[in-house]
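Retro notes (design track)

What went well: tokenization of the new backbones is finally stable.
What didn't: we kept losing track of which sequence belonged to which structure.
Fix going forward: every design gets posted as structure first, then sequence, in one message. First example under the new rule, 334 residues:
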């Protein structure tokens, strides 16, 4: 037998979700060439900026040297053009040359300046290409399989994926709820706490915070996507893992909880047997959701009712029974 007590509970909803990485990227080459080194261990955690692959830098070193020389030559041309423009200006003041000749030298100096700027831009591009021969991790995370090996030729662009990189800490948990959940939850969704557990865990040992609720309900499925961000310091939450998610729906309320084993079914009615004195009575119930292994009763029981849990098959309404030592039917919310 179990004695009904009103307890404060926090109504919640249990949903299913998936762990996803906050950042994930396909690592692709930005220059073409032959791979000369794979500089990471597959599946290892790497820091931001770690060199993952090296592409043969020699052609780009030569291009960089050539661009450097072009800048030096362009600077010499600028210096010479400025000197000639200065002389022409003095000669024009002395009426020693025609104005058209002075204009030509001034234009030549301006052209030399433009050529210097173009040479400097080409040098910058050559420097970038040389830097891109070192393929680096754009953020800290865990590496995937290397899709190329030393000696393979790779082409710049979206066609070649060298490897994949995912961040681990923090992580996202994506889950979906129906329209009823959304309507109950949306008013308190922002920065709301959630708890979740993995397939091999009991209960909901991990905690996170909702940071995103989709801006529309999917008309085809009647569901809405919600996302929570969770710490992952031990890096156990691997992207793609299944997660059981529990979200709060309201503030704490008083409710009666009974053992679900005591609830019987009569067609579309739910009921329990209650011991009133030494007489068995039937009580029809309106039930709510499960809460920590107990069934929430919204109507049909009151505090102090003695619900028969064991030996139900031996009793019926109006029969006499002797109560065993009662136990509390509800548990407090931690």
């Amino acid at each position: 037998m179990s004695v009904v007590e009103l307890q404060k509970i926090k109504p919640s909803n249990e949903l299913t979700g998936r762990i996803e990485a906050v950042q994930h990227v396909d690592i692709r080459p930005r220059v073409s060439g032959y791979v000369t080194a794979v500089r990471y261990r597959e599946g290892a955690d790497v820091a931001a900026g770690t060199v993952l692959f090296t592409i043969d830098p020699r052609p780009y070193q030569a291009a960089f040297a050539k661009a450097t020389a072009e800048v030096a030559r362009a600077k010499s041309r600028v210096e010479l053009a400025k000197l000639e423009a200065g002389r022409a200006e003095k000669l024009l003041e002395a009426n020693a040359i025609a104005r058209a000749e002075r204009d030509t030298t001034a234009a030549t100096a301006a052209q030399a300046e433009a050529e210097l700027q173009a040479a400097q831009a080409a040098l910058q591009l050559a420097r970038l290409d040389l830097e891109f021969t070192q393929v680096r991790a754009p953020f800290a995370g865990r590496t995937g399989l290397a899709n190329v090996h030393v000696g393979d030729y790779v082409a710049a662009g979206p066609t070649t994926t060298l490897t994949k990189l995912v961040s681990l800490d923090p992580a996202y948990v994506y889950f979906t709820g129906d329209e009823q959940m959304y309507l109950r939850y949306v008013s308190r969704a922002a920065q709301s706490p959630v708890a979740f557990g993995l397939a091999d865990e009991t209960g909901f040992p991990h905690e996170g915070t909702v940071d995103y609720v989709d801006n529309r309900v999917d008309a085809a499925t009647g569901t809405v996507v919600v996302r929570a961000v969770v710490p992952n310091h031990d890096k156990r939450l691997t992207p793609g893992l299944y997660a059981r998610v529990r979200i709060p729906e309201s503030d704490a309320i008083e409710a009666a909880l009974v053992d679900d084993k005591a609830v019987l079914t009569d067609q579309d009615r739910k009921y329990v047997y209650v011991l009133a004195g030494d007489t068995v009575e039937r009580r029809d119930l309106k039930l709510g959701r499960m809460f920590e292994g107990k069934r929430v009763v919204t109507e049909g029981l009151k505090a102090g009712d003695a619900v028969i849990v064991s030996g139900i098959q031996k009793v019926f309404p109006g029969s006499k029974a002797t109560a065993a030592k009662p136990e509390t039917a509800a548990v407090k919310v931690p």
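Added context from the reviewer: The chain has four domains: 2-9+253-328, 12-21+168-248, 24-55+133-166, 58-131.
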